[in-house]
Amino acid sequence: MVGRLLSAAIYSFPKPTDQKNALPAPPHTGPVARIAASTPTFYRDVLPILEQHCQSCHRAGAIGPMPLVTYGQTRPWARMIQEAVRLKKMPPWFADPRYGHFLNDPSLTAQQIETLSSWTDAPAGDPHDAPAPRQWTDGWNIPQPDLVVRMPKPVEIPAHGDIEYTFEIVPTCFSRDMWVQMSEIRPSSRQSVHHAVVYIRPPDSRWLRHAPAGVPFTASSLTGEQDRRGAHATDSDMLLVYAPGSSPDHWPNGMAKLVPGGSDLVFQMHYTTNGHLGSDQTSTWNRLDLAVDQRQFCHSARR
Ligand code: HEC
106 alpha carbon to ligand 1 midpoint, in Å? Predict the structure, then answer.
């Protein structure tokens, strides 16, 4: 009887008009109210955390091994989620907290860890409590881009052996300075890419100046002695770096990365072999900061 009273009280509080025939209303600060508030449900408590901290990797087409988007998808993982968040395996983050605080640290708060790890009975709760579903652009973790740059030629990857760093230079043909506020790199063949860097080569840079544009090459394939020796030493700024599971760069409001007019983007790819022939054509997807006052920044940044 007590059990029935408790469960009825948790999930259906009597409406004022039903007062006469209703069960006694629970006191708001009593044990019943505490049970109701502290039992996490999927829609109210778990899903908001998954949207903010997990779905960038755990959704269809992303790097995580299973989607954590719907109740049905998430429920079988409740125990594994508990373990993964308690041990701080998820979300992955390898910086040592003893050495400073990072603005883009995706780690969960103690409260969020507590919520996810006490959801092992996996109640669904009320779908009306769900946050608005997060909108993702297919295959990307930043919103609709203003500027997509893809390596013009795919790179053929052998089945075995070590592969020298592979470069591909892509002229942007920007006639004026651009400010990039969000940037993401996506390999087309994730399983072959150990890491990638996209450099911004300004028009006055001598780096790889005699190397061909628009086709893949390695340092040792270059005929120019200076280019061959200098391939791995550059003073060009990086647009961004990719490694498996890395997040896009997103600079705070008022900050953006300068791509001077006339620059080239230089993709530097480190491929690894895995026993199968492969092919990759990596792209970078960017959102420009159109609100930046161009004149103000040009002075300070370009000297
Ligand atoms: C940056 C990408 C990324 C994010 C963000 C991320 N995961 Fe994962 N997750 C992965 C990958 C990749 C694997 C597979 C790891 C492996 O096989 O070793 C994984 C595996 C898991 C597993 C299986 C664990 C196991 O031991 O096999 C669970 C459970 C999990 N993630 C839960 C979560 C939860 C919960 C969050 C958010 C709090 C989260 N992940 C955020 C990439 C991510």
Answer: 13
Task: Judge whether 284 and 178 are in contact, CB under 8 Å.
Answer: no
Check whether the bond before 91 is cis (ω within 30° of 0).
yes
Counting every residue written for the chain, the total comes to 303
Domain 147-302: CATH class, spelled out? mainly beta
Distance from Cα 58 to the centre of ligand 1, integer Å: 7
The residue contributing the CA closest to ligand 1 atom 7 is: 91
pTM greater than the 0.90 cutoff:
no
Structure confidence at residue 194 (pLDDT): 94
Q: Which of 243, 133, 141 is nearest to 182 (CA)?
A: 141
Determine the distance separating the centroid of ligand 1 and the alpha carbon of 138, expressed in angstroms.
19
Distance 273 CA to ligand 1 centre (A): 24
Q: For residues 278 and 90, is the Cβ–Cβ distance under 8 A?
A: no
| Paired tokens of 151 | 């390596």
Query: Residues lining ligand 1, CB < 6 A?
Result: 53-54, 56-58, 63-65, 77, 80-81, 84-85, 90-92, 108, 245
pLDDT along the chain (303 residues), means of 10: 30 34 42 58 98 93 90 97 97 88 90 97 96 86 86 96 96 87 92 95 94 95 88 92 88 89 95 95 89 42 31
Closest ligand 1 atom to 49 CA: 38
Domain map (residue ranges) of the chain:
39-129, 147-302
Residue pair 227/208 in contact by the 8 Å Cβ criterion: yes
